[in-house]
TrEMBL record:
Coiled coil start-end: none
Taxonomic source organism: Klebsiella pneumoniae
Bias kind Basic residues: ranges: 64-76
Name of the protein described by the UniProt record: N-succinyl-L,L-diaminopimelate desuccinylase
Known EC number: 3.5.1.18
Cofactor(s) listed: Co(2+)
An example molecular function term from Gene Ontology annotations: succinyl-diaminopimelate desuccinylase activity
Presence of keyword Hydrolase: yes
Any GO BP: L-arginine biosynthetic process
Pfam families: Peptidase_M20 (PF01546)
Gene3D superfamilies: Zn peptidases (3.40.630.10)
Chain spans, region Disordered: 56-85
Organism phylogeny: Bacteria, Pseudomonadati, Pseudomonadota, Gammaproteobacteria, Enterobacterales
Length: 151
């Protein structure tokens, strides 16, 4: 059985991202979002990559602000490579499977399905995805909010 959410989550987990190094996770999500009509605005500050993805940019939007998470090193040894996704007992294991790569995969696939099912929807979807929420967090959401709120 194939599951698009699991497949995308596995692709993201395979990328050895450690905050704030994105390791190509955002490029993969940007490619998927652009394919369904999103306009993507990179908003990089310092060592931190992030992007604002908008579908139907002239309308009001509900903004989702997830982070692409992979915190620093763990203190205890793992029983598998953290960047090798594994399905065991029906559950996906790997760095970021529960927070946040798995969630990002679900959001991207949900957006793809929504746009496919409702191509003429009246609202707008928006995502702000950043790679720095698990480290210093100084160049992530804080900088984006400052930039968007500036006169």
């Amino acid at each position: 059985m194939s599951c698009p959410v699991i497949e995308l989550a596995q692709q993201l987990i395979r990328r050895p991202s450690l905050s704030p190094d994105d390791a190509g996770c955002q490029a993969l999500m940007i490619e998927r979002l652009r394919a369904i009509g999103f306009t993507v605005e990179p908003m990089d500050f310092g060592d931190t990559q992030k992007f604002l993805g908008l579908a139907r940019p002239r309308r009001d939007a509900g903004l989702r602000r997830p982070h692409r998470r992979s915190p620093g090193r763990r203190r205890r040894p793992l029983d598998q490579s953290p960047f090798e996704p594994t399905i065991r007992d029906g559950m996906l294991f790997g760095r970021g499977a529960a927070d946040m790569k798995g969630s990002l995969a679900a959001m991207v696939v949900a957006a793809e399905r929504f746009v496919a099912q409702y191509p003429n929807h009246r609202g707008r979807l928006a995502f702000l995805i950043t790679s720095d929420e698990e480290a210093s967090a100084k160049n992530g959401t804080v900088k984006v909010v400052e930039t968007l709120m500036a006169p």
